[in-house]
């Protein structure tokens, strides 16, 4: 899920993607019972800072399906939130 700290990492020599986020609409697996109201595709990025990616086959950063972050990260209509990728070198 996007609400993580990702900083000071380097990715190289992948066949497809460097950083890949699969944003699903609801929690799944064992998390579903506990986090039933969490919407991963609406969660904010905590920090994505000073990361690099090179020599990958397709995309340096791939956000799959849909990503529509909001301030509260909920399903209901909420204030949009801008995701920021600081100091990404690709």
UniProtKB/TrEMBL annotation:
Name of the molecule in the record: CEMIP beta-helix domain-containing protein
Presence of keyword Metal-binding: no
Ranges where the CEMIP beta-helix domain occurs: 2-60
Record-linked Pfam families: CEMIP_beta-hel
InterPro entries reported in the protein's UniProt record: CEMIP_beta-hel_dom, Fibrocystin
Phylogenetic placement of the source organism: Eukaryota, Metazoa, Spiralia, Gnathifera, Rotifera
Protein keywords: Signal
Organism: Rotaria sordida
